[in-house]
Structure formats: structure tokens, C-alpha cells
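User: Here's a structure from my thesis project, written as C-alpha cells. My advisor, Dr. K., wants to see whether a designed sequence matches the one we expressed. Can you design one independently, without my sequence as a hint?
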């Protein structure tokens, strides 16, 4: 009987130690993964294949108008890390989630002048500067950190598709008449290269985005 009890105790202890060791191993592996990631890849094509060597695709030159009536260009974001997205003010679907999560980023980095946000209206014929100003006030969008921009429809759609690769439907159909509606947040570095793409409606993706912003800050 004593031998049986001793054997049982030994087996239980072995299983416990084994599980504990496995948990510690997993924990150490996770820590190593996090600590070893010191650089983000580049995304140079619409299929978003990560490329680690160098960036070959920069966001093209642009010129839009923000909610304060100011001209916003690439120079506004030169040397800055920024997150870009696409929305419209009367959108009843995903846009409220996108705006809410952009607001979370604004709050997170409000003391960091090197992190900016850029939201393009995909309905510029409706979203005038005045309407963007009202929307900005309603959603506590603050300058100079977060720019809501409007402008020429063709220019906005072209940069969405050719610059940020933000329109998956266009990638598949090449139909220029399609309305752009994407949940993507695009992370751009201080040199104008795309360094990450995230679903802006998902909390887990938002955590990943914030982690990658910190990696990018340390990288540059």
C-alpha cells in the first residue's frame, strides 16, 4: 500500500513538474519572441507579403484639406510615424468602430508628437471641411495629431488603391467605380514606407498595432 501511495505521489509530482516546466518554457519562448522582434517588415505590394530587407514602395505625394481647412501633404508627416485609415462621416457600419479605435490611439499617444493619425474621407462630395469640423468636434478629434481630410475624389481613391493598398475589392476586380470601404489601419514609418496592416475594428489587432508602433519607434 505504501509503495502504491509513493508511486502515485511520484507520478502526480512528475506531471505537475512537467506541466510547470512546459508553462515556463512557453512563457520564456514568448518573452524571447517579443524581445527579439526589433524591426518590422516592409509591405511593397497589394498582396502584403512582408519583405525584411528594404522598402521599395513609398506613399505617393498627396495634397488634401483637413477639418481646419489646412493643406495636408506628405511633408506634414515627414519624419513621423502615422496610422492611416479611410472612412466617411455618415457611415453607419464599421466607421464608428474605426473612429473609436483611432480615438484610442490618439489618447495613447497624445503626449508623443512623433505619432500622427490620418483619416481620409471616401465620400468627399459629402464630407466638406465644415462637415469634417463638426465630426471632429463630435468625436473629440484633436489637431495637430489627428487629421481628417477631404479633397478630390479621384486623388483620394487613387492613393487608397495605389498608395496604401487599402481597397481589396479593387485588387481583385480592378473596377474603378467601386466604392472604397475598408477596415484597414495602415502603419507608415517616417520615410513613407508601409510597415504594418491591421483590422481597425478588432481589439486584438489594436494591441498588435500599438506593440508595433513601439517597435518602430525604437527602430528609427
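Assistant: Designed independently from the structure alone:
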Amino acid at each position: 500500500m505504501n509503495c502504491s501511495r509513493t508511486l502515485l505521489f511520484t507520478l502526480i509530482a512528475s506531471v505537475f513538474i512537467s506541466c510547470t516546466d512546459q508553462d515556463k518554457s512557453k512563457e520564456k519562448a514568448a518573452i524571447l519572441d517579443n524581445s527579439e522582434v526589433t524591426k518590422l517588415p516592409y509591405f511593397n505590394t497589394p498582396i502584403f507579403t512582408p519583405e525584411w530587407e528594404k522598402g521599395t514602395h513609398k506613399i505617393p505625394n498627396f495634397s488634401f484639406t483637413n477639418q481646419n481647412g489646412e493643406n495636408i501633404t506628405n511633408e506634414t508627416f515627414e519624419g513621423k510615424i502615422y496610422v492611416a485609415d479611410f472612412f466617411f462621416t455618415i457611415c453607419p457600419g464599421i466607421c464608428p468602430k474605426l473612429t473609436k479605435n483611432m480615438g484610442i490611439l490618439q489618447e495613447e499617444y497624445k503626449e508623443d508628437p512623433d505619432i500622427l493619425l490620418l483619416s481620409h474621407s471616401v465620400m468627399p462630395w459629402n464630407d466638406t471641411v465644415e462637415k469634417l469640423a463638426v465630426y471632429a468636434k463630435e468625436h473629440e478629434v484633436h489637431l495637430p495629431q489627428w487629421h481628417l481630410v477631404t479633397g478630390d475624389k479621384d486623388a483620394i481613391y487613387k492613393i487608397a488603391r495605389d498608395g496604401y493598398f487599402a481597397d481589396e475589392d479593387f485588387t481583385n476586380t480592378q473596377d474603378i467605380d467601386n466604392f472604397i470601404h475598408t477596415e484597414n489601419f495602415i502603419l507608415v514609418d517616417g520615410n513613407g514606407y508601409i510597415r504594418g496592416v491591421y483590422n481597425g475594428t478588432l481589439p486584438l489587432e489594436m494591441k498588435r498595432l500599438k506593440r508595433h508602433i513601439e517597435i518602430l519607434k525604437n527602430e528609427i
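When you compare it with your expressed construct, this may help: The helical segments are 2-36, 95-108, 129-138, 153-163, 168-173, 203-219.
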